Amino acid sequence: MANFFSDNKDLQFHLQHPAMRKIVELKERNFREKDTYDYAPHDFDDAMDSYRRVLEIAGEVCGDVIAPNAEGVDKEGPKVVNDHVQYASGTVENLKAVVDAGLGGMTLPRKYNGLNFPLICFVMANEMVARADAGFENIWGLQDCAETLNEFASEELKEKFLPLVSEGATCAMDLTEPDAGSDLGAVMLKATWSEEKQTWLLNGVKRFITNGDGDISLVLARTEEGTTDARGLSMLVYDKRDGGVKVRRIENKMGIKGSPTCELVFTNAPAYLVGDRKMGLIKYVMSLMNAARLGIGAQSVGTCEAAYREALKYAHERQQFGKPIIQFAAVSEMLSNMKAKLQGARALLYETARFVEIYKQYTHISHERPLEGDERKEMKFYTRLADGFTPLVKLFSSEYANQLAYDAIQIHGGSGFMKDYPCERLYRDARIMNIYEGTSQLQVVAAINAVTKGTFLEQIGRYAEADYVEAVQPVVEKLKSLTEQFREMVDYVEANDKEVAGFKEFHARRLVETAGHIIITYILCRQAGECEDYINSARVFCKLAVGKIAEAHTYVMTSTTDDVALFKAVEQEC
Description:
The chain is an alpha+beta fold and 574 residues long. It is 59% helix and 11% strand. It contains 18 helices and 11 strands. Strands 3, 4, 5, 6, 7, 8 and 9 form a 7-stranded mixed beta sheet that branches. The chain has a two-stranded antiparallel ribbon with strand order 1-2. Strands 10-11 form a two-stranded antiparallel ribbon. β4 (190-194) and β5 form a beta hairpin. α9 runs antiparallel to α10 and α15 (473-499) packs antiparallel against α16 (503-528). The chain is globular, with a radius of gyration of 24 Å. The chain starts with 8 loop residues before the first helix and ends in a 5-residue tail after the last helix.
């Protein structure tokens, strides 16, 4: 099988981004650990060499173990045995392979036996794992729960739990309940302090928990008696070895079947408080969710990669009317659009990961020493970008995962509808990606402030001021006119929203997607200046953007305040 890192020039390109020098210096704190740990890098080049070597190992595991197991895991799936999850045999093999390869605790500090790698490397590994098997990515990728512990937990809890993650312990986020899905403020699972046992005891039910029987779980629970809103919720960490939790059932899902989605029953399950009481949803879950959205972005891009490769391979092999079907214009156009969306989604993913990486590193540094003025300013700048771009990347990448999986089946024709080809599984796996960790509709709600507060327009302005190669100058000029259309839409919506509440909400998705199309095209144009492989994708994506923005612009600019009543009318039905 192929090595999923060395066979992907796009991943290698993003690893070499100029911002990596700054990221590495922040992450390594000027390489201060080189004399403490024999595997700590001595300089930037040494660090980059380590990243490449480990990513090549991850790529080999993905190509040689996880991908070949994917179909078998999809068929076998996990099951409940003695109130706990028993993984499919292929999943067990996958877990052993990633542990043996030392792929646990990728971003965790070395003092907790982690690799201390930048978030970029973890996102790349996530993408490769998802390309191999999106369901297994849900199990392995949840080690990012440890980052929340690393950021907010006491040193005692870090020393207890983080080395376990580095050694391969699996994780889970126990957030949702039967009556609290996206509305996490309605969570009612109780956490009660036991004077006798000197610990918190958890009682209640959690539902739709990905990898719900993981070794270490972050649990959102109600610690404040008599409360019913977010202010009564805290974050706790639960160790499976302590008992008190049973798996009532594993959901029978459409896709990602290798990943157990569980309903859990907590009965006096002991747990430890993470950070401060009452801050569970307000602070810690927000951190978890942002990390999870980036994780789903990586999972979605990995699925896009798998779908595109399956479609391209089949189009070369399938003969109709005496020639490969890739030679038919209708098919080649589909593939060109698929590639542009894939590379566009990936460009947005790693742009976002860089923003998140920099502000997160400043956050960690602020725990070690006071930040200097320029550092505080830079942290605030990247935090603002990360807050806007994170829901944007989740929105675009998950929608594209569905579109590319759909197109892959279409290119396969009737064969794609059969379970003989991987694209059937990819189609089922992709469908959840624009639903969990916040639906596409909720991503729009999260991103709309970046439209109205000017975050997206300011960043678009920075992209516009950059230099671009001659080959994409026509695209850049078109982007300038598209940006003016975007400004016009924003001004029109904000003016009408002052007259009729709900006008902005009505057009929110059109505004957010318009910003995203412009941003992605600019990033692809920038990449074209460093590698000519992106020139065609920049041109193709721009054509897609022009069509989408024209449709949005026409809809917005011809709508009136009376139109708000149209979508509200459905509320009166039934």
